[in-house]
Amino acid sequence: MKRWSKTIRISGALLIAGGIISGIVQTDVGLKYTNLGSDPRWVPPARTDVDALILGIPARSLVLAGLVVLVAGCV
Fold first, then answer.
1. Given phi > 0 = left and psi -120 to 50 = alpha, else beta, which region is 35?
2. Number of domain units in the chain
3. Tell me, what's the pLDDT at 75?
4. How far apart, in whole angstroms, are the C-alpha atoms of residue 38 and residue 45?
5. Helices 2-32 and 59-74 meet at what angle, rounded to 10?
6. At 2, is the secondary structure helix, strand, or coil?
7. Mean local confidence (pLDDT), 5-19
8. Residue 40, in any domain of the structure
9. Does residue 74 register a pLDDT over 90?
10. Mean predicted confidence (pLDDT) in 33-56
11. pLDDT for the residue numbered 1
12. Residue 62 and residue 5: Cα distance in Å, rounded?
C-alpha cells in the first residue's frame, strides 16, 4: 500500500505544480490583452488560438485537485 500512497502523493504534487505553472503563464498571456497604462489609443491585439487555449486551462481547479489528491495520498 505504501507504493500506491507514494504514487498518489507524487501525482498530487505534479497537479499542484502544473496548476501553478499554468497560472503564471495565464497571467503573462492575460497581460497582453490589458491596457495597463490607460492609453486611449491602445488597440488590443488579436487573440490567437494558442492564447485562447492557455487562457482556457483551469489553473485553480488543477491546484485544488492536486491538494485533494495529495491529502488522499497522505491518509
1. beta
2. 1
3. 80
4. 15
5. 160
6. helix
7. 93
8. no
9. no
10. 90
11. 64
12. 19
